[in-house]
């Protein structure tokens, strides 16, 4: 039982149309699945990724219309990274952000890699991270029909940053229950007076398998709104291994969902001691069970258990196109 890396991150948007415009037309990611939140079918759940939404490449969004702005703080996921092929790709993205008026920082070094921080229109905090010297989890393949440069495009998820008031309870879950190893630390990029950021990795390691923990005892707890990250998911090989993880999480007495069927993958949700929501998700079946590769994300996809309610679901949704 070893987690293979990061599977996906799921965040909140108040405007599905604007969200699709930014992630496809500006970032050049492929909308690989346009479906609904299975826990609230009146709103969209959008999946972006590499050419076929391979596990480890997916950024997803739940639409919550009229959601207030995120109130930033601790006990939260505060940075999502997207991998790019090398250092030169960061220069491409910096220029593209300036052309599209995207809020961004300067290219900087972080944990031995070059990164370019930026925010989407709703304040979702992200960064591109260079794979120039990465030798860990394999990257995905950018879509050849991307609206940005496929040669410089996002190849998957990089390190995810957690911000907590007290790091040790979260670190203990990562190491003692989830099998991560603590490999290094690095100075805080915004304030060297703050504690160093700690780096944990799993599986083959590298950019696609890292969690970074930031300690901020000076901040209040986050109040989630648009632009917030809802949860981070980690890769499990298959449903059999997921059942073993369910037993391990139950034995650790962590609040959890038990087995959840999502059709595109199977999941387990639980909260670590600082209240951040983690998910374990299987690598398959994937997104091509109900749509061919060539037409992923072009129409509303519903898992079989929601298909009988299609007409009612479609009637409540505002068209994105």
From TrEMBL:
Q: Which Pfam families match?
A: Glyoxalase
Spans annotated as Disordered:
133-157
Record-linked InterPro entries: Extradiol_RC_dioxygenase, Glyas_Bleomycin-R_OHBP_Dase, Glyas_Fos-R_dOase_dom, VOC_core
**SUPFAM superfamilies tied to this protein:** Glyoxalase/Bleomycin resistance protein/Dihydroxybiphenyl dioxygenase (SSF54593)
Q: Indicate the segments forming the VOC domain, all copies.
A: 5-131, 156-283
What PROSITE patterns is this protein classified in?
A: VOC
CDD domains with a match to the protein in the record: PcpA_C_like
Looking at the record's lineage, which domain of life comes first? Answer: Bacteria
Q: What is this protein called?
A: Glyoxalase family protein
Q: Which organism is it from?
A: Marinococcus luteus
């Amino acid at each position: 039982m070893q987690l293979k890396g990061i599977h996906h991150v799921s965040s909140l948007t108040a405007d599905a149309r604007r969200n699709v415009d930014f992630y496809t037309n500006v970032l050049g990611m492929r909308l690989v699945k346009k479906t609904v939140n299975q826990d609230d079918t009146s709103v969209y759940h959008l999946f972006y990724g590499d050419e076929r939404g391979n596990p480890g490449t997916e950024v997803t969004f739940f639409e919550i219309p009229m959601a207030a702005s995120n109130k930033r703080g601790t006990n939260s996921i505060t940075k999502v990274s997207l991998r790019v092929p090398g250092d030169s790709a960061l220069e491409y993205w910096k220029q593209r952000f300036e052309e599209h008026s995207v809020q961004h920082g300067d290219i900087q070094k972080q944990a031995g890699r070059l990164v370019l921080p930026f925010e989407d229109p709703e304040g979702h905090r992200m960064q591109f991270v260079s794979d120039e010297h990465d030798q860990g989890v394999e990257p995905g393949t950018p879509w050849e029909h991307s609206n940005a440069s496929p040669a410089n495009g996002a190849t998957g998820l990089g390190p995810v940053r957690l911000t907590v008031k007290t790091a040790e309870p979260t670190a203990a879950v990562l190491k003692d229950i989830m099998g991560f190893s603590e490999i290094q630390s690095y100075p805080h990029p915004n304030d060297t007076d703050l504690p160093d950021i700690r780096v944990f990795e799993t599986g083959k390691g590298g950019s696609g398998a890292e969690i970074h923990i930031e300690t901020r005892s000076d901040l209040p707890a986050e109040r989630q709104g648009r632009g917030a990250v809802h949860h981070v998911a980690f890769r499990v090989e298959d449903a059999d291994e997921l059942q073993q993880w369910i037993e391990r999480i139950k034995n650790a007495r962590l609040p959890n969902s038990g087995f959840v069927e999502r059709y595109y993958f199977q999941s387990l949700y639980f909260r670590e001691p600082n209240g951040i929501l983690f998910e374990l998700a299987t690598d398959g079946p994937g997104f091509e069970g109900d749509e061919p590769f060539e037409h992923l994300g072009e129409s509303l996809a519903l898992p079989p258990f929601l298909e009988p309610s299609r007409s009612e679901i479609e009637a409540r949704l505002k068209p994105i196109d």
